[in-house]
Amino acid sequence: MEQQKSNIGSQKAGLACTWIFTLLTIVGWLGIAGFWMPVPADAGLEATKAWFTQEHQWGVLIGCSIFYVAAGVLTPGSIQFGIMLAKIEGRWPLWSLTTAVCGIFISLIIFFNACAWLVAAYRPETGADVIQSWYDWAWFAFLLGWIYLSIEMISTAVVELQDKRETPMVPRWFSWFTIAGAVSIITAAGPAFFKSGPFAYHGLLAFYYPVVVWGIYLNVTALYMYLELVREEAREKQPVAAGATRKAATA
């Protein structure tokens, strides 16, 4: 029983990694690095270089360093998502494993994105065309990774909807929201075709909307999974309490 309690504590810590990732992302990448309002895709070579090497150099170096740490922290959170789903899916949990693997892919994508943005800010003497190339590559890798996020979200919802208990781990309305979000973030494919407007990599539909959907999916799903662990813990304690009551009655 002590081992089971310890295991639930570990699983709670795994889910908490999702919230730590979110916090580090907001503080490091969006805040310190300044990516809450990134330099536009159509700003031009010199403006992009100035943003990285003059206006935000130290912010990018510090903020993106925090961001790649956040990417590492996301890994156990993604694995715990898969574990929680596998409890529902049962033997040969294809979609649960898909959720976990896609989450790990996303953490690797973020790591390499952070490295690319660090490269862009690293040497002020680097040519503007080189900095622009690194900047473009990082955004394409980040946003075109929507396909892994979409697959992760659909896989998560597919398993959640198999949960036929009276109180499912995740409410069905949120599972359907997850599917709708997974389909709608195809807007993140826009940067391959646009340098300005809502579908550019600094745009409302290509950047801000998918990031918000991703954040809601990650954090709300983690919350419902955490509450399921709380219920699991309570169920494990019930036999112990019942046994103690019987023992006291026969004493």
Mean pLDDT over the residues: 94
Distance between the termini: 23 Å
Spell out the helices and strands N to C: HHHHHHHH
Uncertain runs: none
Strand percentage lies at under 5%
How many discrete structural domains?
1
Shape: elongated
Q: Which bin fits the share of residues in helices?
A: over 70%
Supply the helix-strand structural class: mainly alpha
The number of helices is: 8
Instruction: Tell me the total number of β-strands.
Output: 0
Task: Please state the CA-atom Rg, rounded to the nearest Å.
Answer: 22 Å
Q: Describe it for me?
A:
The chain has helices at residues 2-32, 45-55, 57-89, 94-122, 128-143, 146-160, 172-184, 204-250. With 251 residues, the protein is an all-alpha fold. The protein has one domain (2-238). Helix 1 (2-32) runs antiparallel to helix 3 (57-89) and helix 4 runs antiparallel to helix 5. The protein is elongated, with a radius of gyration of 22 Å.
Map the helices and strands.
Layout: H1 2-32, H2 45-55, H3 57-89, H4 94-122, H5 128-143, H6 146-160, H7 172-184, H8 204-250
Helix pairs in contact: 1-3, 1-8, 2-5, 3-4, 4-5, 4-6, 6-7, 7-8
